[in-house]
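Deviation from plan, reported transparently: iron/sulfur cluster complex.
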Amino acid sequence: MAYEKFTVLQSTAVPLPIENVDTDQIIPARFLKATERKGFGDNLFRDWRYNQDNTPKADFVLNNPTFSGKILVGGKNFGSGSSREHAAWAVYDYGFRCVVSSFFADIFKNNCLNIGVLPVQVSESFLSLIFDAIEKNPNTSMTVDLPNQTITLDEIGKHENFDINPYKKENLQNGYDDIDYLLNLKEQIKDFAQNRPF
Amino acid sequence: MKKTLFDKVWDAHVVHQIEAGPDVLFIDRHMVHEVTSPVAFLGLKNRKIGVLYAQRTFATADHNTPTINQHLPVEDPLSANQLAALEKNAKEHNISYWGLGHEKNGIVHVVGPEYGITLPGATIVCGDSHTSTHGAFGAIAFGIGTSEVEMVLASQCIMQPKPKKMRITVDGALQKGVSPKDVALFIISQLSTSGATGYFVEYAGSTFRDMSMEGRMTVCNLSIEMGARGGMIAPDQKTFEYIQGREFTPKGNDWDTAMNYWSTLHTDEGAAFDKEFFFDGSSIEPMITFGTNPGMGIGIQKSIPQAENSGKATYEKSLNYMGFSQGDEMIGKKIDFVFLGSCTNGRIEDFRAFSEIVKGRKKADHVTAWLVPGSHQVRKAIENEGLLQILEEAGFELREPGCSACLAMNDDKIPAGKYAVSTSNRNFEGRQGPGARTLLASPIMAAAAAVTGQVTDPRTLL
Ligand code: SF4
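Because the crystal trials were delayed, the predicted structure below was used instead.
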């Protein structure tokens, strides 16, 4: 599915300073029953965001109008657990284009890259700096610059570089996906398949 | 060059290498289920392309299926819709489809090995993170997202950067009452839930060699819970005996050719790993979790540890959710539910172990127990081996196969605030139902809890 290209994103951010946020929190399994990729943002962090009677929980950050933006900042080991791409869809569909953490679970990170959400891994100390800055000033602006692979806290000017696979970087900047690439390799794949023993 | 088992299998599947990018990896076997596949099939339709090798994909319905009255129409309209979509997609693309009620139906990672879809030296993927289970046979098997499901359908390949390599060696005989599940929970408690992120694990040592194939599957299944993409064990005589003669395993000459290849699948002496761990199997105790991730596990005789400084807030949040305090003993905690099942512990050996404990005893009155076989084949074995009678005499019922309370997408949800001793793989907040509190443990620990109504050291009942 086509997604918006990613180059430079300047935005305020939503802080979620919790470690090991797993995909069952990002989107609980009972919301995975769709056969189309639509409306997952409504159930992002469903059980942290809403009471069982569907009223919003006032103390959860997504229900707090003080915080908003296209960047989600999470604690260490973000996205562990299930392979459900629905978690990345929910993040994207809610309106986030970038998730920042000091550590990401593999499959979640991969899923994000495949659908146009940029996972930015920063150091523990830079992550604390971000959380502190947002706590002091919820309007703290950050710039995520994909071509230069930097993330900057705009007010104080502090920045850090982040890693990304060059191939994935090019995909994100251009809005390409892997399937286009693979379809172009079809003949090579067919030759390969002929020699598989099983 | 000296190669690891992982290198040998990976390198044999690289179709194309992208400079400074991921490898294009050929996938031998692909399993699909109703939850993570519909959007992938929709993607094919939108691109106006088909499935490249339908015979390499196998579909089964499991995640979203009821575990009672499977002969009746599925009540939840959304679940019914997903099941119908899988059936339609499978038919349209000529993919083998084992739907609800089909004799081969069951949890993807249980039926794969049962029918010989899982083979040593193969690459196997599925849109479910516990695909790592199949690594027990010396396959490279891992979970993928829906975009990747679409890639595999379209091109039989995915794009993956080659992970780093880790070896976990455990030697020594396990104590009585200690099962493969305990070994895995112990390792995860040592490494943490992110300790193996970025790695593919090989399990080596006598403890794994001595395990049955079922036990090895339980261990490999839980690899993902320490962050690893997957885990594998070198195939040996036990592996070959297990797979020989199954429906989709090679036959005749093809078997001999395959055997020649499979006998090369082991890590060469002196091959390098990026990281290694060594543990003593004989000192592992029966394990139970007390928190909200699988790394929060302790030996059954221990009490809940104090928080460390880093991550204190998260730790306290977790204990708060569980209704436990630092320093609490686990033994004696009252429980409400028991779940025996899932691709972690829903195989025949798990039902044998559970039955051994409950035999001649009675289920505690206040405990609700859901016993869910991993597949129809497991269910039949339970009947044929006389286990069903033992279970029924002890006050248990056997349900029909599916993922059930492992992820609680169907009606098998643990109610809010209730405690469940569960043989599945995740104790995340709400995993088994909104507000549910999960204690992960082995089948015999679950059995001990079911008959005593509280957390009990199963060794006292052996
Ligand atoms: S039993 Fe649980 S972990 Fe296994 S396939 Fe089903 S949902 Fe996934």
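Chain B has a mean pLDDT of 97. We consider this an acceptable substitute for the interim report.
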